[in-house]
Predict the structure of Heparinase II/III-like protein.
Amino acid sequence: MKTECIKQRDDMAPAYSVAEGQTITAWAVSGLIASYFPGEPAPAEDRVNYRFINGFVDVGDLPCRKAFWSTMVGRPLSPDTSWPTESLNLPGSNRRVEFTGFWHVPTHLRRWLKGTFRTETARTLNLKLKTCGGVRIWVNGQEEVRFEPFKRNVESATDISLPLKAGDNQILVHTEDLAERDTTWFFELEMLDGDPLCVLLPVSLDQDEVRELEALARGVRPARDVFVNQPLEIIFGTAPERDLPVEIKVVGHGHERPVLAHSRLTLKAHRGSLTADDICGIPDGYHGVHMTIGSGPGSVTRVIDAGFMSSISPLPSETSLAARKRQALEYSARFGANRVGRLIAMMETGHHDQESFDRIIEATLASIDAREDCSDFIMVPLLWLLGAYADRMPDAVVDRIRHSVRSYRYWVDEPGNDAMWFWSENHVLCFHTSQLLAGLLLPDEVFSASGRTGRQQAEIAGERLGRWFDSVEAHGLAEWNSAAYYPIDFIGLLALERWAETAMSARARAQIDLIFRMIALHTLAGVPAGSQGRAYDKELRAGPLTELAPFAQVAFGTGWLNNGVAALTMFCAGGYEPPADLAELAALTRARSIEARYSQGLESGRLVLFKNEAAQLSTVVDHKTGQKGHQQHVLDIRLAGHPMARLWVNHPGEDDPWGNQRPSYWAGNGILPRVAQHRDVALLIEDTSDARHAWTHAYIGRDGLDDLITEDKWLIARSGRGFSALWASNGLELITDGPTAGREARSYGPLSGWAGIVGCGNGDAFKAFIERLRQTTVSFDPGLRRLSLTPPGGPAIDLSYVDGLSIGGEARPFTHDQPHPILTHDSAASGAGTDGPFYS
């Protein structure tokens, strides 16, 4: 939807031609209309079977959705055209008109949109309507479409016909949904007719002004991956012909979504970039950059992300774990996010900040009392605070905390009308831990949601936690290596290690040991990375700014602190100590290389890690090959020369490079590939024939690379002493403009083979690495879907999409199905394996 159609009158609004197969995305959009919509409190069916998977779980219909279906579907709705235009939705990188977001309580969401469809003669317009939510469409004041499936986060589709008269037709759209936490909300109108349609925007702007806004919003990106004590600089990829106001808000990704900076600037005519001098020195983190370009009805909004750091260098290392814990507590007390974890740090260090203390307590109790989704994550540290420091808090504060604890809903068998998510691996742990700790701390109190005493709550929670441990001890964690969810697991596990009875405390300690072992294996130069069971853009592109990174810093002695305090301060305030041998796995000595293999999760996340002193290659192999992906991150490369030096390969799950679906453009896979790894070589076969995007791509953490070389079908990167190479059978195109300029390499075609290789050393070693790549034979047979790589002097490494991995003609099935990592190669140990790496 980009080609301008012929305008009949000079004073008409901006116009677009929409051809067959394209979608209608030019609309004037109202503001968001949102209202709390809880339904009547009721217990829910307990569908948790403690067999955790990745992906959406059918949990039945919550009270809010039952109420929504009974009162909202088919209701009378008068068309409203009196609303002011808040912004324009313009053609860009998304085929959909999308308003996806996250709401912590049940919320009815609505927006109106309007546009004009022009046709020279009367016609019946045929479209395919897809939506998550419900859609009504009026043509010239007459309702013509009512499509209201309202399936939670599930796309529904139908064919529709709109009667158009000759000339201009006024189109009004009402889109709505019920938000239950993460909410995919969109509609898509695809042209089915061979004859194109002329679509006009009903705004008082000329064609050129709208084209400017369209190009500016479509191509915007941060100038760098990370701003290190530098002002925020935005690149638009094009330049306007006129001065344009730009409003920027930098918003943290935490639960409270704090506004960290707010600036109103002017993008000067003929300038393609904008520097916000007053957005500098904000708290370290990977933050959202919310922009409004233009003003009033002639404006567009765009949200991108950028990293901010005060120093690119790791912290000076304290020699002892106790000293690093103290250092982290001091940092968190002063700079931690406004969560309960910061209060624990303040109590431990004696840092007195009454205003912050009161504000955090108020926000925490408000979230818990509202039963906001993710409030279980703050309930656990609140109970730690109550158990450890009640004698140091005012009686009134302690009484208020106890009241909120007694009034909370701890499981689905207790009546509620909230949108709390009880069913995933990390939430199950935190809810059960909350119930146990609350019962232990208030054994004789009556809990209002359940009618049970605290003693009864604790007994039930203990049984439930036993089932959780039985599952993860047998299968491992479905959310393996997740920089987003390991910190959440730590919330529950560290609290159990500190407060539970001896047997359960020991089980928690063993699971913490295992998680730290996996973190150590996947940490390089202070940054935890690697394949992940659940990944988001905000962690993949954040490097040392994830909430997991400070755990590595404290545990192993190298890295960065940031404002993440969901569980870090519990680690630092408690007595738990990671196993002593992990530090040497987190930072390998020169000339040492290791390979580890193990499985995590019921659905067999079969994990392979290869690592040397300066490069790391991590994959999940044979995982749901050919199926629709969710948030699985399958192939990851990390180099040690810079904290942002990272590359990976995936199949995009959505259109928008700055979107946040699951899977997204960068995080997860639309279709999961066949993957195999042996030592420092990974092979990947993509078959995306039936997918929306018939191509795959590589992410390039460009800020962290000293060299980036393209040669034939190879993309070769160096960061410090770490090297990597990616090969794609269909070739690689470096993207040089738009939102992914300099950070994306695409390989077009639905069927392709990829190879990933790592190595390390000095400048001469890098030259030797490149020469070995030139001597490497790589081929892909699309008919057989077979990829073969033969290193110089080594055996052929073959991957068949159907049959899996073979080396030198001998099948190499994955046989390490236990959840505890085993070193299958260690150059520092005798008898660790008969064959070593090929390129390191």
